[in-house]
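Tokenise the fold.
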Amino acid sequence: MAKVSKEYYELKKASIIDASLEVCKRKTVSSVTMQDIIDEAGISQGGIYRYYKNIDEVLIDLLSRIRIEQYESINRLNNVIEQNIKDVIELRNTTIDDNNVIARRARIARIIKEIHNVWVEELEKYLYPHKKIQLEYMILADNFPDRARVIFPNASEEKSIDGRIMKELGREIEDGIITPRITLQEFMEYNTSVYWGIINRAISVNCYQRTANFNKRNDYDIKKRYETFAKSSAFFLGVEEYIE
């Protein structure tokens, strides 16, 4: 391989990722091949292997790009969680009386509402192709976990967010502030299932050109679904009366 500048090398890799993104819009992630990308990019077979050894290396860079493009919403979600948890901790350090209990329950309801608002904005902005590709990656990960760990080794980041929330909710339960109707583990599993269920359905309607309830394409109201989701989450935590 002739020596090329670093800038040229990175530009060439970027063009290959551009091509892989276009292919992933049309095909499921698990079915994409190196030949698909070669055909899309218009390069020789030998050319692509100068930059990527296999399809998994391409997917690593594609998912990294998607992650970077979604960083703003991910960062905002983290900020929403951290700021509200900080407020909860401050309230926890004051005397527990009726006003304190009401304020802390209201704060938990606010966390739920604000998290769901961020999710709505994220899904409306990144549904296609970002969420489509990420959902298909998760399906691939379920079927080929060893391969998934190679493609996306930092996939546990979201779990740390869940752990943070569970820890603080646990403290509120210990203090008698909230009395959930289900266990925290069940609550987190419920949230994960509904979160991905909404995304899955939105992708089915908007990306795979299916219909929701036999209505026209794009009639799937993401915001309405998340409003219902927020209310049900608040109900399970026993703070439904504080949801606006």
Residues 70-242 form a domain with the Tetracycline Repressor; domain 2 fold (CATH 1.10.357.10). The chain has a mean pLDDT of 85.
